[in-house]
Design brief:
Chain lengths: 233, 531
């Protein structure tokens, strides 16, 4: 009886300790080596601490990042539902899946849905049957909210990020003329306007961060990028 | 074989069939989704000349759905895996998947609660049947048992370490507490059914990552084969723990008819969970798999239906004939099927038409894509971005490398003296080999471009020398060309390592035994005599 109880406590303690350590490491409480940013490691995609780039671009209707991470059960239903295959599961450490880095603090995002606008941007389910955005409709846990598919609802509820133009790279600001981003923008004239020589200007208050402009940019590396603020939506 | 045994052998085949059906359903849903992507992209012509499994599966889906006038509701009605699934437009979610976001976000999302209610109800009635009748990872772990038998056949004795069954309840509570404290789900990432689902998804959607899922499953498989039989299901699985608690007072259970039991213990080695059915079949651990039923030579074990609290034994007394056992068991199976049917009730969501703007489609693999791979670095005030076209260079073909250096503080591109770049091939042994000597590059439209040819698959270092605040900084970018390390080689390495480990363990054991026999033969008093 007493031995059994002692055995139980020993077992329980062992499990608890293993869990806590395992969870700690996997959730990235402790740096796992690739976190240190010395010169030799600089080539690793995740070794750069860019505070604005660490939150990946989430599908439309996502809650604020912390809340999103708490709610998302990593079931990949949104990935399956995206008609444009824009949503992909984040692969931590690859540097190839939506700006996620490796190591400390990033592995909590493993297998969460992201959009790599450069690869495939969110086209807001245009031309697809249904009156809501598919990803929010597929989400079982409310990490992605259901958003009705009309201009007003999308404009007021989707806040994935904001497009930012790098004028040093943009052709239209460097003696060429392009305008590809403007033609890709679903809210052209509101979220983005063109000036002389097709120089684009982003209007952050109307930009929802779908990434179609980043996708369309003919410059490589792209001169326009969606920056996430983690505000959600 | 008695009729009872024959019937319950049949039940076992049903169980295996259902499990396989669940996997087929998951694969089918994944292909249905992929098919949906092709439909959305108006790329149906591509299906005709697509080769391999992918092509066959997608064409099979097309032959099913091609004639349906509007398949969109069907495509929307099937999503996900056993972790969280939509079947016929109806959401079903694993109770653990329901509990975790509640713990992590401290908020309740009602649709999630509805979607876990059916599995919970099913568990309350049928017990922990998810584990034995549905769980795809459970099937994998049952295969581990077969592997252990194979090992024994090969005279390699796999480990038989015993862990406490109560560990899983501790694990469940600790995991939920972790989720609560950190605000991030924990089990979602390691729970084998969820991982298996993601693996199936990744295998159907090729660019998706599979390494993480495979590692988690292989660790468990390794542990089950080498260390402790059915370690995960018996002692670790948090989902099993939750199902166990929910199904503790289950209506359908395996019951012992004490008057028939001769105490032969034939049922004991059969139980996949390592229980002694005569004693434990009414307890919290039993998952109603029914493996013990046909093993009983005296038909003393049977499925029974009874409300909780009702003394099962009295119920038994009335049904002593074989036929009655049969009917009771059939009732249990029927109840199970009804439960399953309840999950599969077709609910058709309402849909309306709405078209918005012009879509921008182009998702084919061979569509000229700009690579998304970027190699960022920082140095002083500068943010340096290296890009390469193609993203992962093809050996033997020219690849265009470009550097963009930007002063983050001044928000201006770098306009110092020309930068210098050289390319090295890394060598596992010895010196790195220089394949492009240091080359000075001037800016063209604010980019520093270099064309290089990577001769072989392998790892390379692109070294950028740039003037930062008056001194020369050398920044190495590690990149790969071609496909130096494929997944099969990793799997082979893990498998090989496992075999080596087992053989080593065996060798040590044999040597120890020999040593002990040797000592005994020499009459060492302080050693225990051998049997």
């Amino acid at each position: 009886m007493d031995t059994e109880r002692r055995q139980f406590f020993r077992n329980a303690t062992a499990t608890a300790v293993t869990t806590v350590v395992g969870a700690g490491v996997s959730l990235g409480l402790w740096p796992t080596g690739s976190d240190q940013n010395d010169g030799s490691d600089a080539a690793h995609a995740g070794s750069v601490d860019s505070s604005d780039g660490t939150i990946p671009l989430r599908p439309p209707g996502a809650l604020a990042e912390d809340e999103f991470l708490a709610r998302c059960i990593r079931c990949l239903r949104c990935v399956e539902s995206c008609p444009n295959q824009a949503i992909v599961p984040l692969e931590v450490g690859s540097g190839n899946r939506g700006g996620g880095g490796s190591g400390g603090g990033q592995s909590v995002r493993d297998a969460t849905p992201v959009i790599q606008a450069r690869r495939q941007a969110c086209m807001l389910c245009a031309g697809i049957e249904g009156d809501t955005l598919k990803c929010g409709q597929a989400c079982p846990s409310g990490a992605l909210q259901v958003i009705r598919k009309d201009r007003d609802s999308i404009k007021s509820n989707v806040m994935m990020g904001t497009a930012v133009i790098d004028e040093a790279l943009c052709y239209s600001y460097n003696n060429w003329s392009c305008g590809a981003c403007y033609r890709a923008c679903p809210f052209g004239g509101e979220a983005m306007t063109l000036g002389l020589w097709e120089r684009p200007t982003v209007h952050p208050e109307a930009c929802i961060g779908c990434g179609l402009c980043e996708r369309a940019c003919i410059r490589y590396p792209q001169a326009i990028r969606v920056r996430t603020g983690g505000g959600g939506g | 074989m008695t009729r009872h045994q024959a019937l319950h052998h049949g039940v076992q085949w049903m169980r295996h069939g259902l499990r396989l059906a669940v996997i087929v359903l998951m694969v089918g849903i994944a292909y249905l989704s992929l098919y949906g992507h092709y439909r959305s992209a108006r790329a149906m012509d591509d299906l005709t000349d697509m080769t391999g499994v992918q092509g066959t599966a997608l064409r099979a889906v097309d032959s099913l759905l091609g004639d349906v006038e509007n398949p969109q509701p069907i495509l929307d009605g099937f999503k996900g895996t056993v972790w969280s699934m939509r079947v016929f437009g109806f959401d079903v979610t694993d109770p653990l998947a329901g509990a975790e976001p509640i713990a992590a976000s401290r908020a309740i999302h009602l649709p999630l609660v509805w979607s876990v209610s059916v599995p919970i109800l099913m568990t309350v009635i049928l017990g922990r049947v998810f584990c034995s009748w549905v769980c795809p990872a459970g099937l994998l772990f049952e295969l581990c048992d077969k592997l252990r038998r194979l090992l024994r056949f090969a005279e390699i004795q796999p480990g038989e370490v015993k862990f406490s069954y109560r560990n899983k309840y501790v694990f469940l509570v600790v995991g939920l507490v972790i989720a609560f404290v950190l605000g991030v789900p924990f089990f979602s990432r390691i729970y084998p059914p969820a991982v298996t689902g993601r693996l199936i998804h990744a295998l159907v959607f090729p660019p998706a990552p599979i390494a993480g899922s495979i590692v988690i499953l292989l660790v468990i498989v390794f542990f089950e084969v080498a260390v402790s039989p059915r370690w995960w299901c018996r002692t670790m699985c948090p989902g099993g723990a939750l199902y166990g608690v929910l199904g503790w007072k289950r209506v359908v259970r395996v019951r012992l008819e004490a008057s028939r039991c001769t105490g032969c213990r034939d049922c004991e080695p059969v139980c996949p969970l390592g229980l002694y059915p005569v004693r434990d079949s009414a307890g919290i651990e039993c998952d109603n798999c029914g493996r013990c039923l046909p093993s009983c030579p005296d038909d003393a074990l049977l499925y029974s239906v009874g409300l909780p609290g009702r003394k099962a034994r009295h119920h038994v007394k009335k049904t002593t004939e074989n036929a009655r056992h049969g009917s009771s068991s059939i009732a249990a199976i029927l109840l199970f099927l009804v439960g399953l049917g309840a999950v599969l009730v077709p609910v058709r969501p309402a849909y309306a038409h709405h078209i918005l703007g012009l879509p921008h489609y182009s998702y084919k693999d061979n569509y000229p894509q700009v690579p998304t791979l970027e190699y960022p670095a920082t140095s002083g005030p500068y943010e340096i971005l290296m890009t390469c076209y193609p993203g992962i260079p093809i050996p033997g073909e020219a690849a265009n490398i470009a550097f963009y250096i930007k002063d983050k503080v001044a928000d201006q591109p770098y306009d110092g003296p020309p930068v210098s770049v050289r390319v090295l091939q890394t060598a596992t042994f010895g010196q790195n080999q220089e394949i492009v000597p240091a080359t000075e590059i001037s800016a063209f439209d604010n980019l520093y471009k270099l064309s290089a040819v990577f001769d072989t698959d392998g790892e390379y270092i692109v070294e950028l020398s740039v003037q930062v605040e008056g001194r020369t900084e050398v920044i190495p970018f590690r990149m790969i060309a071609g496909d130096p390390s494929a997944t099969p080689s990793i799997l082979a390495a893990i498998g090989g390592g496992m075999i080596v480990f087992l053989v080593a363990v065996r060798a040590v054991k044999i040597k120890r035994e020999r040593h002990r026999l040797h000592s005994v033969a020499h009459g060492d008093a302080h050693l225990e005599p051998s049997v």
